Amino acid sequence: MTDTRRRVKVYTLNEDRQWDDRGTGHVSSGYVERLRGTSLLVRAESDGSLLLESKINPNTAYQKQQDTLIVWCEAENYDLALSFQEKAGCDEIWEKICQVQGKDPSVEITQDVVDESEEERFEDMSSPGLELPPCELSRLEDLAELVASSLPSPLRREKLALAVENENYIRKLLELFRVCEDLENREGLHHLYEIIKGIFLLNRTALFEVMFSDECIMDVIGCLEFDPALPQPRPHREFLTKTARFKEVIPISDPELRQKIHQTYRVQYIQDMVLPTPSVFEENMLSTLHSFIFFNKVEIVGMLQDDEKFLTDLFAQLTDEATEDDKRHELVNFLKEFCAFSQTLQPQNRDAFFKTLSNMGILPALEVILGMDDVQVRGAATDIFSYLVEYNPSMVREFVMQESQQNDDDILLINLIIEHMICDTDPELGGAVQLMGLLRTLVDPENMLATANKTEKTEFLSFFYKHCMHVLSAPLLANTTEDKPSKDDFQTSQLLALILELLTFCVEHHTYHIKNYIINKDILRRVLVLTSSQHAFLALCALRFMRRIIGLKDEFYNRYIMRNFLFEPVVKAFLNNGSRYNLMNSAIIEMFEYVRGEDIKSLTAHIVENYWKALEDVSYVQTFKGLKLRYEQQRERQDNPKLDSMRSILRNHRFRRDARTLEDEEEMWFNTDEDDLEEAEAVVPPSDKMKPEQDLMEPISKFMERKKVKDCEEKEVLGKSALSGRPNPSFKLSFSGSTKSSLSSPPSASLNPGSPGSPGSPGSGARGSPPAPVTTKGGLVGLVDYPDDDDEEDEEDEDSDSKEDALPPSKKSKVSS
């Protein structure tokens, strides 16, 4: 049987002065050779891994709190705590720590963190304790000065805490407070304020337990009402006794639990409202107060979770139709706070907590609550639902799929969430944004489970697109029945933008489910209606949706786009935007540039064949001319397949400039057998080998003649290619298989999207010039690369400059800007 005496939780204090749970395990002490000393070891009860290995340093201050806590500072700003399940285990480890440090186990702190000065050490040897003045009205000023002078010194602070604890001084001070209040002795009350505040800064658990007891806590709060810096005392006690009422929505039968709840609320109130905002120095001295509240909350959640009758009554009343609205309002607020407290639990206990709530029927209860008219109640229910989705989305998905077998689509929990998102009355749609985030988590395949027997992703997405997607897309479809949005106000546009954001997420992650839905319901055409919205953010959301679809490079989508001419609204939006240099302009150009850069042949042909006349005058970027060039190259390859094979030969062979090297390589080629040729080398097809050399060279001669014509045409756009910002390749090929006249568009490899007025970066004109072709024996064709030909570079630079000088004044202004 597991030894529960040594069962502990390990906590560390984070930067926000909150305790983080590091896990549950069993603690032991023993000599560790690596650390060269007796150490505390905690091994996880789940897998036996080492949660903590801490050497008991003779100079480290260990503090024992609440009989089951040991707290210490491992290093600068790194506090640790062990919370024991049983007091006996805490006492056993505490004795071991005190034995190593040579301390009496009856103390609650072994020593101070800060080293004392030589003067304080001498004082420690000469005076064993601190003598407090008598607790009388006439000595309150002396006592306040003593407390203030002791706080800066760790040693004097420790002595003061021991003296206050041993002499039961707090209760005497509180009796004196009641006398001063009856006599309206304002000066005495101001002194008591300083004294009680100083006792808080002593940071001692034993003193807190006295101050926060039922008979003392209200008087302690009373002392803190009389701040000397304020002209009038603050009515904290009046608020706690008259305004703040403890609503016991479900009767709590355990008196210890009720007392713990009262105490935690009041101590939290003291920390947040009564005590003045601590300085950086004072904040470190209140760490024990933070710990006191934290462990109280952990204890409350545990006690409530163990009370089965309490939770049964809670959920029974939540789901009972006879429960009054006010009562249900109180119940749901309690449940929200209960879930918030659960965030203090460690992961294993939090799993059990949410599993308990699920078994009790929290999700059916939320359905009832979300159907109420009270906005505050629905808001609280949304917060509870967010806790559940954030911690265990699979549990929510499993519930809604089971629910769909019994209920209509209209009353499904997930559809209620969508309807509340759509019907959010907040002008800023704060609630809708929160709900959209929850829906996104639920439909995210990344957090869906896959097992051998079933796949959650397939089942849930099939359910979602069958039962819920029509509810989500309803506002979009209702608002896009014509060429322009039927409602274009700010709030409607915000909502549609949220819906589009979720649909875009689905396009990226849901593959065939969303594809079938978009094509069957013609969603993209409806979405592109929003490009004519007066709100730029909504038009950009519509463009982003289409851009994600194109980015998938899926031919099903491409055929759908071409069949319905869905680039038409994009081109219209581009032309309506005019020469304005804005996000709309950049987004549309980037979309076309993506089609060109990725060489999506079907879309390239569709765009050029249908929209070239509208786009051919756009010259401040080379994107559209590049699309035309891509299109022409595709046509040439289709019309003359033999030239396409010739292109591969030219691509795979580049010869050096040196004539001797060229001759050597030719000789090697003729001396090599076919079987010895490497895979990368280009060879003449066997059918061509049987032909006479004259017949074989004829198509090459025709190709070279057409290439000379194409070279002359391409030189006309070399000046523009320098604006593209992308260096040209060292060689390029152009094919002309049709009877069309010259195409004054730049080479596709030198294109880059731009924008009106945007400066271009210098291109490399020499490297972009067409290389001279070389014909070798046997029909082998290569390219002579001239990367180092300075004369040719100079010649091309002069040609480019002359072209730039020939530009009209309007073009020059765009280039220079």
Automatic annotation (TrEMBL):
Gene3D superfamilies: Leucine-rich Repeat Variant (1.25.10.10), Pleckstrin-homology domain (PH domain)/Phosphotyrosine-binding domain (PTB) (2.30.29.30). Residues 718-817 are annotated as: Disordered. GO terms for cellular component: nucleoplasm; protein phosphatase 4 complex. Residues 786-802 have a biased composition (Acidic residues). It comes from the Eukaryota. One of its GO terms (biological process) is DNA damage response. Residues 733-755 have a biased composition (Low complexity). Residues 5-101 form the PP4R3 EVH1-like domain. InterPro entries: ARM-like, ARM-type_fold, EVH1_PP4R3, P4R3-like_central_dom, PH-like_dom_sf, PP4R3-like. Belongs to the SMEK family. Regulatory subunit of serine/threonine-protein phosphatase 4. This is Serine/threonine-protein phosphatase 4 regulatory subunit 3. It comes from Mugilogobius chulae.
